[in-house]
Amino acid sequence: MALTMDRNRPPTHWTEKRSSSPPAPDLRYAARAEHVEIAFINNMPDAALEDTESQFFGLLDAAAENIHLHLTLYSLPHIPRSKRAQQHLSTFYCGIDELLSGRFDAVIMTGTEPRQSNLRNEPYWSALVDVLDWAESNTVSTVLSCLAAHAAVLHSDGIDRHRLDDKQFGIFDDRKVSDHALLSGTSEFMPFPHSRWNEVRENELGSCGYTVLTQSAEAGVNLFVKRKKRSLFVHFQGHPEYGAETLFKEYRRDVKRYLRGERETYPLMPHGYFDPAAIELLTRFREKVSSHRGEEFTADFPEIVADRSLASRWHSSATHVYSNWLQYVASRKADSSAFAAVPQIGRETSRVDIQ
Questions:
Q1: How far apart are CA 28 and CA 26, in angstroms?
Q2: In the 8-state DSSP scheme, what is residue 108?
Q3: How far apart are CA 75 and CA 121, in angstroms?
Q4: pLDDT at residue 153 is higher than 90
Q5: Which of 77, 136, 144, 311 would give a disulfide with 228, using CB separation of 3.0 to 4.6 Å?
């Protein structure tokens, strides 16, 4: 098994999923060059907290290949939590103060559901900024997902996100627009899920030194990078980690919010996701409830759609990009270790870095 976590701290759902696999050694104490220490900072809302763990753990496990990964779990403070979620975090997660006092090879930080139009007004903003500043000097690379990516460019370069007319929701085909090691061996076009109400734009990113790697005509920029001090910051506006049913669950949640009167408009179906038969079922349900909205109709939502083998056609592309990222982190870690072990005599040797 390529993926391990702090001893006594793997979440139960992952332990059960991997129960058929033999336990791997705790690699913090193994004398191996080919292992990577990752701080996974999961800030997702309660309803998606454990699903997000499974999504990222599964993606990393698939992408690791010959690299052994050791994860330590964290979450930003001051995110509203239920009692059950607080118990989950206290059982399996470590405190941010512990993160900031150490170093990791890499960080992955998720977004969360925004509650303020200005991210600087979010209650967790100060802690988030502390993590971003720490990561610049204490990691080889930092991956930032969705809102975390928006927060990073706002903090570092003052780039504001822009509110969209409607939710950018569904599967969109990215096109490679830059040659970069993170995209080595990938196809020219790659499908990726998106789920967001805001965006950062190519022209503003470019003017501040970011390199856009992939984008689509419909969804705009997805993957973009910039070196910040020691760390390569990798930003995703989309969600390559999503599982096959994640967009379905989000759509169902938004429909039920509409039925309960928590949103005014009926949500759009995720773009490029459902097959024609599922679209027909969901359209009939929408027509039924649009004129007679009420919470009593939530039980009639066509759950059978989820049984129609929703396919994660983006999984191969996501795995490939993350595999390239892990290879980069492992390579830079090995280079740093070798450099530190050799006495530096005479002229410094120049070398090419990924920008």
A1: 6
A2: E
A3: 18
A4: yes
A5: 136
Rounded to whole angstroms, the Cα distance separating 252 from 270 reads 11
Per-residue pLDDT, averaged over 49-57, amounts to 95
* Interior angle at CA 222, CA 217 and CA 223, nearest 5: 135
Phi and psi at residue 3, to the nearest 5°? -115, 125
- Name the residue among 325, 332, 331 with its Cα closest to residue 60: 325
Q: What is the pLDDT of residues 67-96, one digit of tens each?
A: 999 999 999 999 999 999 999 999 999 999
| Residue range 172-200, pLDDT digits in tens | 999 999 999 999 999 999 999 999 999 99
CATH 3.40.50.880 at 3-243+313-341, yes or no: yes
Residue 43 is encoded by which pair of tokens? 């800030």
Residue labelled with tokens 């090995």: 334
Read off the pLDDT band of 324 (50, 70, 90): very high
Residues acting as catalytic residues = 146, 239, 241
β-bridge mates for residue 194, sequence order = 170
Residue 337 per-residue DSSP state:
H
Mean pLDDT of 326-341: 78
Kindly list the domain boundaries of the chain, sorted by start residue. Answer: 3-243+313-341, 246-307
Side chain identity at residue 232, one-letter code: L
Structure token digits, residue 301:
């939502």
Q: Which distant-in-sequence residues (6+ apart) come within 8 Å of 52 by Cβ?
A: 42, 44, 110, 241
Bridge partner list, 163: 198
3-state SS string for 5-72: ECCCCCCHHHHHHCCCCCCCCCHHHCCCCCEEEEEEECCCCHHHHHHHHHHHHHHHHHHCCCCEEEEE
Separation in Å, CA 245 to CA 191, 303, 311: 15, 11, 8
φ, ψ dihedrals at 333, nearest 5°: -65, -45
